[in-house]
Design a protein that fits this description.
By secondary structure, the protein is mainly α. Helix content is 56%, strand content 0%.
Length: 147
């Protein structure tokens, strides 16, 4: 189903681009607006004088296709994601039941047994921490300045 959703999404993007193009090249009703700003008068020369009817019909069909694709994609995505959540809930409920999926207990290890390699930090001695360094106790005190 995800392939169909992806395919219809690509078709919808192409339909959007077609709609943008059709709206921009349509002939304006008056000599103003976005049609003339983006070369609407060139559409007369390119498509002929009666092209307004053809472009209007094509715009209507592309708009209907856009809304149909929108509804179909919305329905398919809601079914796809609702199904995924329902399957997950069913699997979790099945594991929680006493007769559900068998859960094998982990083998018991002695507390002294530790893995040879680990990414867990080990404790360090107090001298290697970020405490401020103090003078060793055997150092003689500094002489007092004369008064």
């Amino acid at each position: 189903m995800s392939f169909l959703i992806g395919l219809l999404t690509v078709v919808m993007v192409l339909d959007c681009l077609l709609l943008i193009l059709l709206v921009l090249i349509q002939l304006p009703k008056k000599e103003a607006g976005a049609g003339i700003a983006f070369g609407g008068s060139a559409a007369d020369a390119l498509f002929g004088a009666g092209s307004g009817n053809v472009l209007t019909k094509a715009t209507k069909y592309a708009t209907v296709a856009f809304f149909l694709l929108l509804l179909v994609l919305g329905y398919l995505q809601s079914q796809y994601y609702h199904k995924s959540v329902t399957d997950l809930r069913n699997r979790l409920a099945q594991q929680a039941q006493p007769g559900g999926l068998p859960i094998t207990p982990a083998p018991a290890e002695s507390p002294a047994a530790a893995p040879a390699m680990s990414n867990v930090l080990t404790t360090t001695a107090l001298t290697t921490t970020n405490l401020p360094v103090t003078a060793p106790p055997s150092a003689p005190p500094a002489p007092e300045p004369p008064k």
